[in-house]
Amino acid sequence: MNYWVGGFFVFISSLAFGAMALFARVAYAYGVSPLTLLFFRFALGALCMGIIVHIRKERFPALKTSAGLFLMGAAGYSLQSFSFFTALTMANVGLVSLLLFLYPAIVAVLSRIIFKELLTPVRTFAILLAFSGTALIVGPSPAGSPLGIALGINAALVYSLYIMAGTHLLKSASPITGSLIIMTGAGVVFGFANGFLGFSLPSSPLGWAAILGVALISTVIAVTFFLIGIASIGPTRASILSTFEPIFTVLLAAIFLQEPIGGTTVLGGLAILGASILLSLQPQAPRVVPEPDINILPIEHNNHNDC
Q1: What is the CA radius of gyration of the chain?
Q2: Can you give the residue range of the structural domain that contains 114?
Q3: 263 CB-contact burial (10 Å; exposed 0-12 / middle 13-18 / buried 19+)
Q4: pTM confidence score
Q5: Total domains present in the chain
């Protein structure tokens, strides 16, 4: 598969992901709650991924890895998704979508705090650019409630932790099998939540169509196409192309939901997406190596090149 074809798959994946918030808004309009929508998203998604795994005869990872991936879905992806989909009920679709793309900057900050990775001048500039963009799009008169904005930012924060936690686990599983296990974990959580609180089913066939749009188009097709594309063009190019996702969301929301696109939203969005692209292009930063205490360490270990 050449780069053009791989890029096309990532581009279509970004469009499918970008339409997810729009499908969600339609489902909400016909009485579906975020919890019920998320259950169908992950239950149907896991079912379709299971069929793909069966057809491809994919092998499941070791039990420890599978348990870790299941926990990622049950604890991480479920919380991120709940924050994002609930924020869509309290704030403009475009605003919530742009806030999610804070995650590369948050990952860079957390990597500095947790893993002691060095912040290069480019990384520092990108982080400042991302948070400046956030200030612009939120502004003094935000297009949503404070809780909705907080949930949107929380979705980006949880997604950042999810990515950092999953980096090691996903090396031990194929992307498709890993996606199946993660979706299953999230589906189980939302299944219990709906069983306890009750399902909010749509009052119209259009509501069911929106649920299928979220589950099949914006989850199964989006994930599968992204994985196909990333295998061809690599993670860096795929990450850059994926920044089209919130652009599609903002445009679709303007066309179908009549959400206004103000100048500050455009400038703030460009700042966030520009920061995301800058961070995608950066190699993994080296970690800060503490100066060894020569009174404690043997002389032969007093070598920074060994770390």
Answers
A1: 20
A2: 3-283
A3: exposed
A4: 0.87
A5: 1
